[in-house]
């Protein structure tokens, strides 16, 4: 399967730095995957602009909502198009592999597990030059702990103690874990027992090289070292037969792979205004990508 992937284009009705009329289906492309934030807002003019964009294609278009164009905007965008699907919580059965879409339902995305609320999970407690390393170590610990939760190897109290969560923070920590578990269960139901699944998500998987969000906030907050991807999504990748994830949101280019010899799972983010052609064929172990200009990132 060869797909055109678009993410975080943030199209604006008043902008003039792109030409939608010049967009067309590249030769050999079987489908178009939109991994959220096609437009910068979800107003009437933005919907019209998104429809103009999708109308350029003559192959199947799977539109996963982002936080700037949250569900149900894609439903309004694809209304009346036979070739386009609003793909939040939708499974698309292609000939090569099943594709699962999962996007955003609101513009404001609260941190599911706000590390800044728990001193032992806050990398800013380390000296400034060591904070990014500390953030990576904490992310590893969080991922491992939550994996034990969803696989039934530990209780929330167990991992709270292991992570050093203070007694007065336990209620908030338990609520965060419950939210991760609920999202994980939802994604698990979507993926089911399918094999070689491709997940198209606006949010990137947690604890990857590209899930540190582009918006750094104030100097006081200083959160640029934090991993901000979806923990539940990362856990699904580790517990289900996921061949690849295609995501956006962070505006950071990145390609991570699994630790085994086949590099599965493949995890790709094409960055801000990402536009690329991706070849996917699990049967032959193929996952490759180029930008629309033809150069390999």
Average predicted confidence as pLDDT: 92
Q: For the report, how would you describe the main beta sheet?
A: 6 strands, mixed
Structural class designation: alpha/beta
Total number of helices: 6
What is the rounded distance between the termini? 20 Å
Question: Characteristics of this structure?
Answer:
alpha/beta; six-stranded mixed beta sheet; 6 helices; 297 residues; disordered C terminus
What does this structure look like?
This protein is of the alpha/beta class and 297 residues long. It has six helices and twelve strands. The chain has a six-stranded mixed beta sheet with strand order 4-3-2-1-11-12. Strands 5-6-7-8-10-9 form a six-stranded mixed beta sheet, covered by helices on one side. The longest helix has 22 residues, at 170-191.
Brief rundown of the structure:
It is built from six helices and twelve strands.
Helix and strand topology:
Elements: E1 2-7, E2 31-35, H1 44-54, E3 60-64, H2 73-78, E4 84-86, E5 90-93, E6 98-102, H3 131-150, H4 156-162, H5 170-191, E7 197-201, H6 231-239, E8 242-247, E9 253-257, E10 266-270, E11 274-281, E12 286-291
């Amino acid at each position: 399967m060869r797909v055109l992937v678009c993410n975080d284009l943030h199209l604006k009705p008043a902008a003039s730095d792109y030409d939608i009329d010049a967009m067309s289906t590249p030769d050999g492309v079987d489908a178009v995957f939109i991994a959220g934030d096609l437009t910068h807002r979800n107003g009437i003019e933005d919907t019209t602009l998104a429809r103009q964009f999708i109308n350029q294609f003559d192959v199947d278009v799977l539109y996963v909502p982002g936080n700037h164009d949250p569900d149900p905007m894609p439903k309004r965008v694809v209304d009346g198009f036979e070739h386009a699907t609003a793909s939040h919580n939708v499974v698309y059965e292609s000939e090569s592999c099943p594709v699962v879409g999962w996007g955003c339902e609101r513009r404001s995305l609260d941190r599911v597990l706000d590390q800044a609320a728990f001193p032992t999970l806050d990398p800013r407690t380390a000296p400034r030059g060591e904070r990014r390393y500390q953030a990576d170590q904490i992310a590893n610990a969080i991922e491992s702990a939550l994996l034990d939760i969803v696989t039934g190897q530990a209780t929330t109290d167990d991992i709270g103690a292991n992570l050093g969560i203070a007694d007065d923070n336990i209620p908030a920590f338990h609520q965060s874990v419950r939210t991760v578990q609920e999202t994980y269960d939802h994604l698990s139901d979507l993926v089911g027992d399918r094999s070689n699944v491709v997940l198209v998500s606006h949010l990137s998987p947690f604890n990857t090289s590209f899930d540190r969000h582009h918006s750094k906030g104030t100097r006081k907050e200083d959160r640029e070292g934090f991993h901000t991807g979806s923990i539940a999504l990362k856990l699904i990748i580790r517990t289900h037969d996921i061949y690849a994830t295609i995501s956006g949101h962070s505006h950071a280019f990145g390609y991570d792979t699994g630790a085994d010899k086949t590099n599965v799972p493949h995890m790709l983010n094409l960055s801000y205004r990402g536009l690329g052609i991706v070849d996917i064929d699990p049967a032959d172990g193929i996952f490759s990508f180029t930008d629309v200009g033809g150069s390999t990132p």
